[in-house]
Design brief:
single chain, about 500 residues, alpha/beta, six-stranded mixed sheet, 14 helices, 15 strands, about 20% strand, elongated
Length: about 500
């Protein structure tokens, strides 16, 4: 188990800048606006030879006065940051080198002491001239001499490493996965493969399944994330824009390990008016395109019979972006307990998905209510099944038998020259998403309508739901005489 190191302090103390320097593969939003960081972000981090998990928290402000949305939001941010600090093994307390030690710092340090965690004191923004004059005042916090650090210019990171070294455990390195490449060449032993099949070439590894929750603001992403994680880890409520960053959290559900990423709400470009939201949207899109399985949350509570816009235009654009990137997609219909005409709603959503997402022949939607947990288990089962279908081996014999059934149901139309189109052999040549190459005669003359029919029927026969299926049509002669021809030449 890696040591969990949490960055804590008042707003704008430089926590997210330090996080970005140490973190691997993730970026926290950095902005002059107080409260930019709203949820705790956790990911692997490295400091020279040290490896640990790093937690970026929201700025803690105990001196909030008054009422209103801003005051309530600040109190909620403080509460979540304090809870995150309690879960950490080591606390790194940052003092703003520009503002120096304030009474709020002294009160906050005294409160954090009660957690009984080892604490490392950092004076941030050491590249600013007046920051060095704050060193003596930092001593009054009772945490020893501060480490004068500049995350932007990597000043004194060796001192931070020395302070963390005795507090961070050193896990054993994990072996790297071997990656095997495949091409589109038709094998010489095609006939033998149809009889005996080949050993699975596409295997599912044991890494956590990366899930991204996406959707418009107020679709219920953070509420679902909190339900899955078993606590209030992300801010959730009726106010749009509470989530500003794409945050990943490890999750163990039903014995399967996941990495769950909650993302900011995706609005239409015309409604995005500031650079902070622009960065948030970029993080959300990247998280969806990097995920093993994308879950698009759609608020179904407004549905009524005759309403044909369960999936709004923005939902369709999000879905199309993900599918174009080759991501498996599940549509989660949230707030299901508020829907009266449930069956009509399901049928309408499936109808819209078939029209929009032609790359996914069997679109998958799961109704749920995150508040009471209804349908959450079904969603996670669907995620595991979709991930397996997207990364697994379909089997050469199974693919060719499926093609036989499909062509028996509806024969390929005659080519543009009036000659018969034949399909002789097929084989899976890729995974994530599954890609099938089909060899035969005059396949280039197949109309797109028949190719789409093939994709739909093969997904049905191979039980591929929620997964983009790609077909590659290759010209070629009889695969069963290919080897004989080569022997004659010899």
């Amino acid at each position: 188990m890696k040591t969990l190191v949490a960055l804590v302090g008042r707003p704008n103390a430089g926590k997210s800048t330090l996080f970005n320097t140490l973190a691997k593969g993730q970026r926290a939003l950095v902005h002059a606006t107080p409260g930019t960081t709203r949820d705790s972000r956790r990911c692997p981090a490295y400091l020279d030879d040290l490896e640990f998990d790093l937690l970026d928290t929201a700025g803690i402000d105990e001196n909030v006065k008054g009422e209103g949305l801003d005051a309530d939001l600040t109190r909620n941010l403080t509460r979540l940051a304090q809870r995150s600090a309690g879960q950490a093994d080591v606390l790194v307390y940052l003092v703003d080198g520009d503002a120096g030690v304030l009474p709020a710092d002294r009160a906050l340090v005294q409160q954090l002491r009660k957690l009984g965690k080892p604490m490392v004191l950092v004076l941030s923004k050491a590249d600013i001239k007046r920051a060095m004059a704050q060193r003596q005042s930092c001593m009054s916090l009772g945490l020893g001499e501060p480490i004068a650090l500049s995350a932007a210019h990597r000043i004194n990171f060796d001192h931070l490493r020395d302070a963390l070294a005795p507090l961070v455990s050193r896990p054993e390195p994990e072996p790297e996965d071997e990656v095997e490449a495949f091409d589109f060449e038709m094998p010489d032993n095609a006939e033998d493969l149809l009889e005996h099949d080949e050993a699975p070439r596409f295997k599912i590894d044991n890494r956590p399944i990366n899930i991204a929750l996406l959707g418009q603001p107020n679709a219920g992403k953070s509420t679902l994330a909190n339900r899955l994680l078993g606590g209030e880890r992300m801010l959730a409520g009726p106010m749009p824009g509470l989530t500003r960053e794409a945050l990943s959290h490890p999750l163990n559900y039903g014995g399967q390990k996941y990495m769950l990423t909650d993302t900011p709400g995706l609005r239409r470009k015309a409604k995005i008016t500031d650079d902070l939201e622009h960065w948030s949207v970029g993080q959300a899109v990247n998280a969806g395109q990097d995920a093993d399985v994308a879950v698009l949350l759609v608020d179904a509570s407004h549905y009524a019979p005759g309403n044909w816009q369960v999936l709004e235009n923005q939902d369709k654009k999000i879905a199309q972006t993900l599918v174009t990137a080759g991501r498996p997609l599940i549509v989660a219909l949230t707030k299901w307990d508020s829907v009266e005409a449930k069956q009509d709603c399901l049928e309408e959503v499936k109808h819209q998905m078939r029209r929009v997402l032609t790359e996914i022949p069997r679109p998958l939607c799961v109704p749920l209510s995150a508040h009471n947990g209804q349908g959450v288990g079904s969603l996670m089962k669907a995620v595991a099944a979709v991930h397996m279908a997207n990364h697994g081996d379909l089997g050469t014999r199974a693919i060719n038998r499926a093609i036989e059934k499909v062509t028996a149901r509806r024969s390929p139309p005659l080519g543009t020259t009036g000659m018969v189109v034949t399909m002789k052999f097929a084989r899976q040549v890729g995974a994530n998403p599954p890609t099938i190459a089909i060899w035969g005669n005059r396949l280039a003359t197949l109309p797109n309508s028949y190719k789409q029919f093939m994709r739909n029927m093969l997904a049905e026969e191979l039980d591929l739901s929620g997964v983009p299926l790609r077909l590659v049509f290759r010209a070629g002669g009889n695969p069963f005489t290919r080897g004989e021809t080569r022997n004659k030449k010899k």
